[in-house]
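Honest question from a wet-lab person: if I give you the sequences of every part of a complex, can you actually get the arrangement of the whole thing, not just the pieces? Trying it with mine:
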Amino acid sequence: MPITAQPRHLLSRYDVTVVGAGPAGLAAAVAARDQGAERILMVDRDPEPGGILLQCIHSGFGLHEFKQDVTGPEYAHLALERVVERDVDVLTNTYVTDVSRELRVKLMSPDAGISTVDTGSLVIATGARERTRAAIKIPGERPAGVMTAGLAQKMVNLHGYLPGRRAVILGSGDIGLIMARRLTLEGVEVLGVFELLPFASGLGRNVVQCLHDFDIPLHLSTTVVDIHGHQRTDGVTVAPVDDDLQPQLDRSWDIDCDTLLLSIGLIPDAELARQLQLSLDPRPGGPVVSSTMETSLPGVFAAGNNLHVNDLADWVSQEASAAGAAAGDVALGRHRARQDVTVTPGRNVAYVVPHTLSTERSQTVSFRVKQPIYGDTKLHLGDAHQRKVRAVVPPEMVTMKVSPKLLDGFAGDTLRVDAIPVEEEEES
Amino acid sequence: MGDERVRDVVIIGGGAVGATLARALSRFHLDVALLEWQAEVAFGVSKANSGIVHSAMHASPDTLKGRLEYPGNLGWRQLHDELGFGLNNVGEVLVALDDEQLVRIEQIRQQGIRKGIPGTQAWTAERTLHAQPNLTREVKGAVWAPTACVFNPYEAVMLVADVARRNGVTIAEEQRVVGIDPPDVEDPDTPLTVRTETDVWRGRFVINAAGLFADDIAEFAGVRDFEILPRKGEEYLLDKRLAGIVSSIIFPCPSPVSKGTLVNPTVDGTIMVGPTAQTVDDKFDPSTTEEGAAQVFTNARKLVPTISERDIIAEFAGLRPVSDTEDFVVGPTERRGFINAAGIQSPGLTGAPALADLLVDILANEGLELEEKADWEPTAPHPVRFNQLDTEDQQELARRDPRYAHLICRCEIITEAEVRDAMDRGAHTLDGLKFRTRVGMGRCQGGFCTWGCMQLLAEHQGIPIPEVTKRGAGTWIVCDRDDHPVTTARTGG
Amino acid sequence: MAEPTRAPDEHAAEETETYVYLCTSCPLGCRLEGDAVDDDVIEVRGNSCKRGIKYGTQEHTDPRRAVSTTVWLHGGPCERLPVRAAEPVPKQKVREFVQALQGLVVEAPVDFGAVVVSDVAGTGIDLIATREIVSEHGRELVG
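Yes, you can. This is the full assembly:
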């Protein structure tokens, strides 16, 4: 099976154009095709489709989407197989630099030059980018050797270089935890993972398998307060933080290291959304979407990490399938599901996606909690639905399937999503 | 690179002063070398500052820096025409927030008028808010000075050095001066010998344009009669999303020691706020601080209330080489042939082109013969700024050279062709590329383009990836694995 | 259940040992408590599902880990080929398993799921490619 499929020739008009060929883009293209759209273009900036999956060589992917535990590259392969079976034009090494509100897409590629295509609908599947040193304002010098964990992952897993010899990792996001193990196995000394918050921001299984297994210390409620080195990093100062997350400098200590990896979170890459002047939800940072992932500009859909940062690629694929199918429908001029229920984040809920629901179709509501609840928890979707779960933690996205039946009688309402400890609820 | 050949002029320091002087000297039949201790020119003081060509009304005409300010302003604009670096004539709005400040800013305007600055206006509060609607409602009035510009000082200095090189000046980087031989008592006309860590340079004249280290260089020459007191300025760059929040440089009414915190629409479309002004001991301390950030944002919000720390995409600190004389230290010294161009604090960047002309005059007075070249070429092909072209022009470029259709930096829309042009003009480090082309300066701060840039740098210089640096010796980015390919497995396929 | 390896009188004196593991079967991360007598797990508590009991037992008697890493790739679109162990590797063998792959170079093309090395480091476990490398990209290996 050819893993890259260049289009025979670029059409001037497509039914559906998908920007990005990571897990979201791949699933959206497949769903759009299966919905009956015929002319589908998928564009990716990298030489091969797969997106960030290709550098995520670890396992833990695919349990939901492919019913097996696979690595990132395998997930990409399995997802791409579905695309290749379906006659989709895939254009790699190509950027979408601009999209007009009339859905004219400007493409740039060394092979195809600079060209424009018109599209009936557009799926934005551009993923997320990493927060950098600037985003959290670490004071100190500006030596070489401060790198985001994802860039280090690319250097190590795709290109065979190490980011340094003695590393400190700031932030306990999943990429940081995974890289702690990865670097240790490649002979880099990982001196510790430091997390500002009192809990890890990555998944529990990664704390166990990436840190505990290798005796890498995880320092919670501790952060990097200074970076040293005129040329290359030669050390950092770390300090515990108080309840207000303020560093207690009198309790700080220095660590000799040549590398500081930052795993301090991902932000939706919402550039196209901004260009298109879509309504954005500041909390997850991506566009406001309907239950079919359609944004405030009709015909433009968003799915995956550019909408909100997911914990599992599997959820990205599922969300993007919904977006791709709806993008196909819109391109073919079919009826749009009525969006007649509004959802909004309530108690202990950081954000909710999508922002509206339909009484006409089944949909999935995804959200993240703000504070961990380590015990029985009641999830509410207004008065329409409630469900008990064992625990909720911020690293894990919570999903609720919502059928039209559940929403019966709630048309026109706003439903608040709450996550409340059961005991607290019983008291009140 | 250095050799026994005696050059007419050896310039120590490849910043704004050294580079503009090198260019000014390149129009004459002279043998000139420019020594820079860092990996590339403009990596010192010239790199980290507010990036402003000042309106020229602020500095007193009683000082040298005040006299050079306006001619320097005009000089940069001419260089912009010749070389095509980014420069926007956005003008300055000097804001008063109370009646006392209204008096003070009018005094500054009158000083500007005496210095010959054209076009200044005294604005009412209403007029000010009409021009800059996002300013605080507390504004009492302002002075408008149309002469102020924003520019990329590093890009400008790099292109000025490049045009000097095209006209025959030797540009030598990673040349840290470690000594200057004592004078020959037998023969005072013996050229000066400048020793760097790796080379020896000889010159009839040596110009000390060494920025933060000018006092150390003067000491090597035996004529240290001033001290450089580094004054730190922290600057914060905000997301391009805020473009348009101000359309001119917004100045507060200055205090006796500082121009204060500015809000500044950079040529690249970001908003810059800063600087702080703090005297520090360490000439190697480009650190930003929490206190600095707090101070900058508190002050900036007094001018533009909606500015927020949340929008920071990058931050940096620069050191300004303030001399203990509080003015420029320029001119011949007791050491024959050794000429200072030191203590070039604000508005030294603005004044640099005029200072270069002054230094040429000084050299002539000291006996340097100036014979103009017939073939001097002050202009050079302007760097292409692809992201500022319309689609038709972009397509035309991409048809001629497909590397214009290959994006290296997606945040700033920088193409492979632009990166290669920067390397052809001397960029050989990641920072060098960044400051010339803006790769890696956008939202993702290099997360995406770093690898592509490293590959191009390695290929252009014929070096392995681990030898690619951020900004020269000691600033490696990645290292090799321990294992080497020894066994080969074939899996079929 | 394994046969006791010690003499019956010693076994009689054996205390019940209680251990704690964080279940990694799913993102929920249940805190498991288990009781074991002489390596025989007699009870697992704190689980939310059956997988917890299986994990708690396995983790105590024979902990294993999924192992993925990369090896040098010659002639591909990038310098490293992602690979993984075909089945979980005993936890104490993980470092040895990865170490054994140092210096290994694989030539393109590579089939998806191809066995790259059989029986890595005497574990009896094969190493398989997790990415398809289609054709020669004609690039020199750097490093």
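Two things worth pointing out. The two ends of chain C are 50 Å apart (CA to CA). The CA atoms of residues 23 and 52 of chain C lie 6 Å apart.
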